[in-house]
Structure prediction request, 200 residues.
Amino acid sequence: MGIGMMVDIVRKILREAPATAVVLLLLAQAGAAAETAGKAAGVSTPPVVGARLLTDQEYLPALLDGIAGAKREIVLSAFFFRTAGTTNSYPDVVLKQLLAASRRGVGIEAVLERGPEDDNVSRDNAATAARMRDGGIKVCMDSPERTTHAKLVVIDRRYLFAGSHNLTQSALKYNREVSVLIDSPPLAEEAVRYLRSICP
Prediction:
């Protein structure tokens, strides 16, 4: 990839998803720190094996492939996971894939946002949480005193999806969104620790 193309990608991220740009900068900084720590410990594995930008509707198929390929564990966080109990909505397709992974023995933990009782995000997340629990998935609704806006999916302590995509029909099908798929065991491990600190 040429420098010009890289500059265009960075400009696009800054223009369309400034929060994702901050995530990318933090991940790059964490990757550099992990690489330094790895060298000091005599470990030669690179902190980031690979990364892929997922814009708009590229996110859903990549996420579904990641869930389908999970072998041991999925830990995720969603600000808004709106399922309807139907077969054709994109969030329900994600839920169906998660439930299939749970049935084949993949351990799944989810952290979902809970705000005020009359809030539609909390209501929809609670309905999704009930569907997840019915399928054997461990779900934590966070404290209503602090918003969990993180959108993370960590698969097998190696693959990390991070970015702006909520698990809603609008985010997965219509919106301009930017997320990143990162192949990095150190960063995935750190993300799992962070998510578990929300709901110990």
Q: What stands out?
A: The chain has a mean pLDDT of 86.
